[in-house]
Amino acid sequence: xxxxxxxxxxxxxxxxxxxxxxxxxxxxxxxxxxxxxxxxxxxxxxxxxxxxxxxxxxxxxxxxxxxx
Length: 68
Known about the structure:
By secondary structure, the protein is mostly helical. It has a domain at about 30-68. It contains three helices and no strands. The protein has helices at about 10-25, 30-45, 60-65. It is elongated.
């Protein structure tokens, strides 16, 4: 049976998944604060392309940070 090389550390997995999202998602139309929230939303749904459907109102980032 072949051994698999994968990350065992939960924190490292979490950090790696966010790094992948930052590398693959088009976050260019968001402010830095909006991008942070968008990254969390992408992480939750697992679909990098979902960011093309995100629209933020002026108070959304503050509300999202409070909720998180």
